[in-house]
Amino acid sequence: MIGLIGKKIGMTQIFDASGKVMPVTVIQVGPCRVVCKRTIETNGYEAVQLGYEEVPEKRISKPEQGHLKKCGSPLYRHLKEFRPSFGQDITQYNVGDELNAGLFGENETVTVSSKSKGRGFTGVMKRHGFAGFEQSHGVHESFRGPGSIGQCAQPSRVFKGVKMAGQHGNKKVTTRHLKVAKVDVERGLVMIIGAVPGARNGLVTIHKES
Amino acid sequence: MDILQTIGRDQIRTDFPDYRVGDTVKVHYKIKEGSKERIQVFQGIVIQKRGAGISKSFTVRKVSNGIGVERIFPQHSPNIDRLEIVRHGQVRRAKLFYLRSAKGKAGRIKERRRFTA
Fold it and tell me: CA-to-CA distance for B48 and B96, rounded, in angstroms?
């Protein structure tokens, strides 16, 4: 459902009402503006397109400028579409509307997605949590290897999807059912209990769950 | 980083005495039992202070019936009613983990009489 685009600031702690320490991730969201709307008649699907972070004209490409100018909107660095979940109504959001952190309430559950930290080409131990081999007792040349990747004559091939070494991270990761601890509408800050994928200063999208 | 430091600034407590590592302190800690609230006192030596800002915490160690007990308190916790310094200690390091294995004379801490604070 509808959400906001923001930037991950980092993690810290706050005390909740009962005095317990709560780890929170601080995300600076919005203000996001509804740039345009996708409709079933013209686009075949429904969505709200939001823009985040205004930029000068020279910072974005001509085609992007064209799109934004056609919609009569300021220029934004980031555009994201938010599609309503089944049966939900998005008629309340009109082009030009500005959305801020007030979209979220305390104790609300949200879905957060962001690009995870890139770890480059990594082995199976780091990427898939394989156990590796013993460092001694006769093991040679293969301390962090994957072991066997299949059988012999039957099926005489490696199955698709076998976990191997490769690019790890720098991929969209979504965490669902995170709880909002606190919202600071004035400064556009949303505090979410627990960790959120991605590096600091990374682009984050927060979706409402209801 | 600037924004992070402002988070929870309103929860930071300034009513603490200037306690140091090596001091013997009494921590008056609020405990909620159902709807009732009572205060429990934990007395011991501060063996470490760590963290900064709202995340600051300190560890208090005491020997109870011959068994070492350590408790970590978040310094800015609203559940700490108050902190009382019983005795100032004169120590030469910031973390007193050696007290865990120190026996007899080695486990004592000299009293700090010369105030440099």
Answer: 7
| Helices marked H in A61-175 | 62-70, 124-128
Within 13 A of B52's CA, how many CA atoms are on the CB side?
A: 4
How confident is residue B115, by pLDDT bands cut at 50, 70 and 90? low
Q: For B3, phi and psi rounded to 5 degrees?
A: -65, -40
Chain B residue numbers touching A13 (CB-CB < 8 A)? 8, 54-55, 74
Instruction: Please enumerate in sequence order all residues whose Cβ is within 8 A of that of A41, keeping only pairs 6 or more positions apart, or say none.
Output: none
Predicted confidence (pLDDT) per residue in A105-125, tens digit: 999 999 999 999 999 999 999
Confidence at residue B116, expressed as pLDDT on a 0 to 100 scale: 57
Residue B42 has pLDDT above 90, yes or no: yes
Is the separation of the CB atoms in B73 and B29 below 8 Å?
yes
A78 has a pLDDT exceeding 70: yes
What angle (nearest 5°) sits at the alpha carbon of residue B15, between those of residues B14 and B18? 90
Mark yes or no for CB contact A26/B7 under 8 Å: yes
Supply B3's token pair: 């924004």
Confidence of residue A167 (pLDDT cuts 50, 70, 90): very high
Query: Which stretches within chain A are classed as H helix?
Result: 40-43, 62-70, 124-128
Which residues, including other chains, have CB under 8 Å from residue B87's CB and lie 6 or more apart?
B23, B24, B111
Among A residues 146-205, those touching chain B with beta carbons less than 8 Å apart: 187, 189, 191
**Residue A142: strand, helix, or coil:** coil
Complex ipTM, two decimals? Answer: 0.80
* pLDDT of residue B56 exceeding 90: yes
